[in-house]
Amino acid sequence: MSAREVAVTGLGLVTPAGVGVAATWQGVLGGTSTAVRCPALDGLPVDFCCRVPDLDADRRLGRRLSWRLDRCAAMALVAAREAVADAGLGAGSWDPVRVGVVLGVGTASMERYEEEFAKISGGRATEISPLAIPRSVPNMVAGEVGMDLQVRGPNLTVSTACASGATALGTARQLLLADACDVVVAGGSESLCSRIPAACFHQMGALSRRGDDPAAASRPFDADRDGFVLGEGAGVLVLERLEHARARGSRIRSYLAGYGASCDAYHFTSPHPEGRGAAEALAVALDDAGLDPGDIAHVNAHGTATVLNDRAEASALRQVFRRPPPVTAVKGALGHAAGGAGAIEAACTVLSLEDQVVPPTANLHRLDPEIELDVVGKAPRPVRMTAAVSNAFGFGGQNAVLVLRSAP
To answer: Which is nearest to 349 in space by CA: 21, 84, 77?
Structure first.
């Protein structure tokens, strides 16, 4: 066992497949898309998305708290509470000064800005809520989680676009290895299911336009893919120093064994066509974990279902792995939660290691012949594995790769 491993002791998920780890994992294993038409997007060229169906923050968090929360923060808080409970932690079981929070956020949620801008454009500037900024600035997601858990260690927000959730987990790992914390509650949250993101990403040509059949729209690695589907959600993992987890007799779900980050330094939105930066991040993560490419039995891909991103990621995997292991892309089922995606997919990778199964990639009907990967489709595939990789890439050429290893 590497001295640089940290323990994963808790998981929490809020996704379009449902609230909670069990609901999400069942949906991902089912390989069915969650994309539906969204009333909030009526009249736009793309009017469908993958939205969390039953968040009900008032019921889950209480009206006294939920009224002030942005949707992004509410999802993070629900996921964080589940993860902390899963880890068997909470008030009285930890030193609050030694517990940190690191969450990845891209833009948080744009809904609040849209609501307040409507007041300005309608000549009602005096009706703008004085809480509009503290509700919606990205750092308040981690801030609200820290306040709710009453922990006083480092409280950080990282923003590396769609790699944010994975970057947050890597940053949390570094805090633990530096002995700055005993526990870090880490992950990511985002909501893109509103009008400004839908209109902007459509104008960029990044979204699927398969509006006649939303459930078939997100097609990672498929030959007929035409873009990603807007999504939302939160993924939170409780990470601990091994000594701390062992001292309290914690159940260890897996180990975060390695982390690699890089920048393409190529283009502000498009990936390097050969996946140069992604391959470099993969190599760094494997080296950090002390593992060889042949030790990895599964890759949870970034897999956005855009033509360029999927091909670049496939190229990176072929560069690093002589024979790439079985690949899945859960965005086929869940859509793209941007800043939350890397953490959601890391949690799914932990579950794959636990259950020894690779989930199917929803809507994979005919693999793009340029991909040249073993992408799992149709049904879950049993795979014996002790180590797996979770990829996350974002605008600005941001790359973050996590290596996870199964617990004994």
So the answer is: 21
Residues 6+ apart with CB under 8 A from 92: none
**Nearby residues of 316 by Cβ (< 8 Å), 6 or more positions away:** 274, 275, 276, 278, 279, 282
403, burial (CB in 10 Å: exposed 0-12, middle 13-18, buried 19+):
buried
pTM above 0.85, yes or no: yes
- Least Cα distance to 103 among 277, 407, 337 occurs for 337
Tell me how far apart the alpha carbons of residues 34 and 193 are, in angstroms, rounded to a whole number: 13
Q: What is the mean pLDDT of the chain?
A: 96
Residues known to be catalytic: 162, 302, 336
Tokens of 35: 């994309």
The residue whose two tokens read 């879950």 is 380
Bridge partner list, 158: 104
Residue 118: count other Cβ atoms within 10 Å of its Cβ.
Answer: 11
pLDDT given for residue 133 in this prediction:
86
What is the rounded CA–CA span in Å between residue 281 and residue 350?
Answer: 20
E-assigned strand segments in 16-159: 18-19, 36-37, 48-49, 99-104, 155-158
CA dist 67 and 57 (Å) reads 9
pLDDT (tens digit per residue) in 369-393: 999 999 999 999 999 999 999 999 9
Collapsed DSSP state (helix, strand, coil) of residue 331: helix
Strand partners, 299: 327, 389
For 302-334, write each residue's pLDDT tens digit.
999 999 999 999 999 999 998 999 999 999 999
DSSP 8-state symbol, 173: H
For helices 307-320 and 276-289, angle between their N-to-C axes, nearest 10 degrees:
40
- CA–CA distances in Å: residue 90 to residues 77, 82, 84: 14, 11, 7
DSSP H helices in 122-238 = 132-136, 139-149, 164-177, 195-204
Supply 268's token pair: 């502000």
pLDDT tens for 73-126 read 999 999 999 999 999 998 889 999 999 999 999 987 788 888 888 999 999 999
